[in-house]
Amino acid sequence: MVVGLGVAQLFGAIRPGFAADRQYLRGQLPEAVSHLQSLGRLPGAAPLQLAIGLPLRNEPALNQLIQEMYDPASPNYHRYLMPEQFAEQFGPTAEDYQAVIDFARANGLTVTGTHPNRVILDVSGSVAAVEKAFHVTLRTFRHPREARDFFSPDAEPSIDLNVSISHVSGLDNFVIPRPASLKRKLAADSPMITPASGSAPGGLYLGNDFRAAYAPGVMLNGTGQSVALLELDGYNVSDITNYEGHAGFPNITLTNILIDGFSGAAGANNVEVALDIEVARSMAPGLAKIIVYEGPNPGNPADILNRMATDNAAKQISSSWLIGDNSSYVAAYKQFATQGQSFFQASGDDGAYYSGIGQSADDTNVTLVGGTTLFTTGPGGAYTSETVWNWYSTKKGTGVNGGGGGISLNSLPIPTWQLGINMTTNLGSTAFRNSPDVALTADDIFVVADGGANYTVGGTSAAAPLWAGFTALINQQAAGFGAPTVGFLNPAVYTIGKSAGYSTNFHDITAGNNTNTTVSSKYYAVPGYDLCTGWGSPNGQNLINTLVPPDVLGLTPLTGFNASGAIGGPFTTTVQTFTLTNSGAALLNWQAASTSSWLTVSPLSGSLAAAGQTIVTVSLNSAASNLVSGTYTATVWLTNQTSGVVQNRQFSLQVAQPLAISPATGFTASGPAGGPFNISAQNFSLTNLGATSLSWSLINTSLWLYASPTGGALAPGGPATTVTVGLNAAANTLVTGIYSASLWFSNVTGHAALSLSFTLQVGQSIVQNGGFETGSFSAWTLTGDTASGIDTGLNSGISPHSGSFLAALGEPNALGYLSQTLSTVSNQDYLLSLWLNSPDAAVASGGLVAFNTPNEFSVSWNGATIFDQVNMGPIGWTNLVFVVTATSASTALQFGERVDPWYFGLDDINVWPIPNPSFRSLVRTNGNKVVFSWNALAGLAYQVQYSTNLTKTNWIVLSTNNATGPILTFTNTYGTDPRRFYRIRRLP
Fold it and tell me: Going by C-beta distance under 8 Å and a sequence separation of 6 or more, which residues neighbour residue 912?
């Protein structure tokens, strides 16, 4: 049956946005294009990723609101918005957003991402589709300043849509963001380190060196605060852990937010990412977490900035990448300001600004951070002085390496908060935006990156995240007073700079310059504001107190206690005393309050004379002993009734069962049928956290587990009892499958029980639905892909490798991703096997032959790419095998795929745990022979080696054996050797 459809039925109702009026997008064309000769056109089939920006609504009202939010005299002062409120008041309308979506789809573009504030729409498409949609021709040119070609429209783009578009990111790659840092291997450059007064090797600055210089004696450490970092590369977690070991820091929580399909793998610029993380947490070692927003480069930084704004997960944000400017960035900066988020941007490492450099971002809602060279009294020592960071003039390096600063190259009008400064001696502008705003050290900084390499790093890349870390201290103080965050710092910073209190709040840098080979007469450091270091670097608690004035009623310490213990007690902490100090000149009244039933505060009120002190005690009461197991939190408020300022302190209490078991989880064992299994037994420690003796017993209903002992008594706080749980002989008789069991540990005295779960995977891949035999992508996650599906071979022309189904992967123009998170065992090796098919051609509908290039297929294990091939030739079903290692209890397995215009076939994906080779039997026979066997995994190779002397390091290879089953056997004639030692090595 044939059914006819009208045009409106086929494409849906035509929206008002599709008017025929032509809209021109001004300012999109790189200025250099007008002076260059085209090298040719971009291939029409090449893929592009675009971010279409929509303008904000009610922008005059928004600008006015931002001004009022940072005016202490306004009723809107620090009355911030939530992301939902911002979108409702100032985001594009839902109707306009949908009109742009419809326009993109109608013009052959694929929508790859939407944003809750409706400011950006992410799309992808071929060059041909982009050219048609925006009425341009995309051509290539030789870059005038960099050794590369770039692409760009040959004219300003236009669009047949009456919904306003502010900017389209991705139409050119004239500017590729780069980090504002310069790295050198430590060993080669140690002699260049000046003044060599830090704690790291070679005298570089590390860890607490930054706090000793810029926050001496400050008790604030960033507790409860998060720092967000904009990054265009990945990093190695091991590098951060390594740095923490050097600095004596505990591990910090790192949260990775991957944008635009970025894998998170560490690339050529991972030094920048490691630097940002390491110095931010150095300035604020108590941070709750660092959120690392990572995207590809080249890419669309607008997507990262907008995600940071709509997440609103961190109140201090840093960018050390020179990303340039566009209106989509500006929208994010304004949203940051309205939400009380501080955004710090490195001012660059090209020295004084001049026409032609890739400027960072000089928007008037951004705090630009310049660089200095720091001098202290020695490792971990006090601040003595700073000069402008300028390697060109101070270290006779090559090129231009100095702190960025100057007059806006984008001709931004001077903001109101920058008025009233004498620009005569600093050579600044009274008409345009000047930068930087502040500074911090950018020289002689120790970094661990590149998988354990030590670097000395310089650049404003370090100064920006250091300022973000310092702002976390400010906002921690604000949180303690129940005050809002400081948000966009510039209005307050410039007010301080123009006040009599400037010298007590900032280190004024008056020595040095950021001149370079292009601008030899600008700029020089002068007293007060200058275009090298702005107002200078922060002067510790003085600046914190000016930005968040402390009450005359002081309350120390800054935090409450975290107590823990068993039901009924005892608890690790039961009491904490706070000192109240009146630093004012008059009598004040105070009052304390708590809504917690398990805390007692005493006394609850009182009066303090000028310079007087008193003690308030917060303690656990008898109600704490009656709590059931769980985690409890409480807040104690202290109010200065004279000033009305309220301070708070947080407390927590963890109540546990008296019978404690460590570790708190059972094991997951796996292996082929008949064994061996990667785990055979595990010890558990039983302790009594309570105040009285208890009896315990163990119930085991599993046929394949043993446990010993199964009961006993535990004295309070006495020695622990060890219980061994392991696999018994029945485990070797199990057929292929996944088996679960629970052991119950009972507190017979207290009538409570704890259970531990155990899992045994027999002959079972840890991949779920690896053959896609459910007929769907169940257990898998498909992202950035609208063209792939599960197939029997009918649609793709590719027969399944086995079973009834395969995955036909064919996302055109850009990589799509298929992923699954696997339950793994840390430090366990696994064998990853998959079958891939790339057909030579296929016959599509209408008799058209579709060849299978361009294409790309990649395999990533836990974020690291282990296979990536572009334009793969025709192959039938081919088995790809990899040996991989898990580093945690969960591992991401991801396949990246792109085929224009047909499909890859993917089938039979398995991940098997690889048992470590271990001897199963050893028999000596007549004729000086020995026969031994060991556990193996089919598909792997094993090498038998021997030595006659264990004090020597030379092992002799006897044989290499390929395993076809779970056991390998080898016979060796040992001849007249008085002794021979054997070992088995798995290859590779």
Answer: 765, 766, 830, 831, 833, 937
Instruction: Residue count of the chain, please give it.
Output: 988
Whether pLDDT at 10 is above 50 = no
User: 514 is written with which tokens?
Assistant: 């950021």
Amino acid at 304: I
270 with 326, same domain? yes
Dihedral over Cα of 373, 378, 381, 383: its sign: negative
Structure tokens at 353: 């600004």
Q: How many domains does the chain have?
A: 6
Could you tell me the residue range of the domain that residue 948 belongs to? 919-987
Q: What angle do CA 429, 433, 439 make, to 5 degrees?
A: 100
Clarify whether residues 929 and 785 are in a common domain: no
Could you tell me which residue, 321 or 872, shows the higher pLDDT?
Answer: 321
Average pLDDT over residues 578-597: 94
DSSP string over 73-102 = TSTTTT-PPPHHHHHHHHSPPHHHHHHHHH
Would you state the pLDDT for residue 204? 94
pLDDT at 364: 94
Residue 205 β-bridge partners: 445
Collapsed DSSP state (helix, strand, coil) of residue 509 = coil
Q: Decide which of 913, 932, 955 is a domain's last residue.
A: 913
Cis omega (within 30 of 0) on the bond before 663?
yes
- The rounded distance, in Å, linking the Cα atoms of 925 and 972 is 10
Same domain flag for 681 and 642: no
On the 0-12 / 13-18 / 19+ scale of CB atoms within 10 A, 380 is middle
Peptide bond into 854 cis (omega under 30): yes
CA dist., res. 329 & res. 956, Å (int)? 64
E strand intervals along 442-513: 445-449, 453-458, 506-507
Distances (CA, A) of 242 to 134, 239, 245, 290, 450: 49, 5, 5, 17, 11
- Tell me how far apart the alpha carbons of residues 740 and 723 are, in angstroms, rounded to a whole number: 19
